[in-house]
Design a protein that fits this description.
mainly alpha, two-stranded antiparallel sheet, two-stranded antiparallel ribbon, 4 strands
C-alpha cells in the first residue's frame, strides 16, 4: 500500500505533519536504515521554511524539532543539535566539509590516496579552530590540487585554436 494511502487511513480527521509521514515511512525496515540517519538532522531544521524564515507551526500543529542522532545524543531543538555537533562531532564535521570541498576543487571523487591530504587539512582546521581560511588554504596548497590535470590547459601559441582542436579531438570516435 502506498505511503500516502496509509497516511490517509491513519489520519482521517486531519492532514499529517511531515514528521508523522516520515515516522510512517521509517517503520518499513528497508527505509529505516537510511531515514534513521537523515531524519533527525532534517527534522531539527523543520522550524525553517523554504526561504529560511522561522515558523512555529505546521498545519496548525506545533513543530517538533527534537530528535536523536544515531550515535545516541538527544536534542530538543536546533540550538542543542548545534551544540552537540560543535562539541562532540567537530572532527567529523571538519572531515565531511573537507571531503566535499576537496571533491569540488579537484573535479573528481576522492580516492584512497587522498586520505592523507584530508587528514592533513582536518588537522590544520583543528589547529586553527575551524577557520575557513585554513580549509581553503589547505586545499589550495595540497598536492592533489596543485598537481591535478587541467584538460582545458592551452599550450599552443593560438589559444582559441588549441581549445577548438581539443574539443574536436574529444568529439571524434
Amino acid at each position: 500500500m502506498p505511503l500516502l494511502e496509509e497516511a490517509e487511513k491513519q489520519f482521517k480527521d486531519r492532514e499529517p505533519t511531515l514528521r508523522e509521514v516520515l515516522d510512517l515511512h521509517r517503520s518499513k525496515p528497508l527505509c529505516s536504515s537510511c531515514h534513521s540517519r537523515m531524519d533527525p538532522l532534517g527534522l531539527a531544521l523543520e522550524n525553517f521554511n523554504a526561504l529560511g524564515m522561522w515558523r512555529e507551526k505546521e498545519r496548525g500543529q506545533p513543530i517538533d524539532a527534537a530528535g536523536k542522532l544515531i550515535t545516541g545524543e538527544s536534542f530538543d531543538n536546533i540550538r542543542e543539535l548545534k551544540r552537540i555537533l560543535k562539541s562532540e562531532h567537530r572532527s567529523d564535521f571538519y572531515r565531511c566539509l573537507t571531503e566535499k570541498l576537496l571533491t569540488y576543487a579537484l573535479g573528481r571523487g576522492l580516492e584512497y590516496y587522498d586520505v592523507e591530504t584530508v587528514d592533513r587539512i582536518v588537522a590544520r582546521l583543528e589547529q586553527e579552530n575551524g577557520r575557513f581560511s585554513a580549509l581553503l588554504m589547505g586545499i589550495i596548497e595540497s598536492a592533489p590540487f596543485q598537481k591535478r590535470r587541467n584538460f582545458s590547459a592551452v599550450t599552443d601559441a593560438n589559444p582559441a585554436r588549441s581549445l577548438e582542436n581539443g574539443v574536436q579531438a574529444r568529439l571524434q570516435p
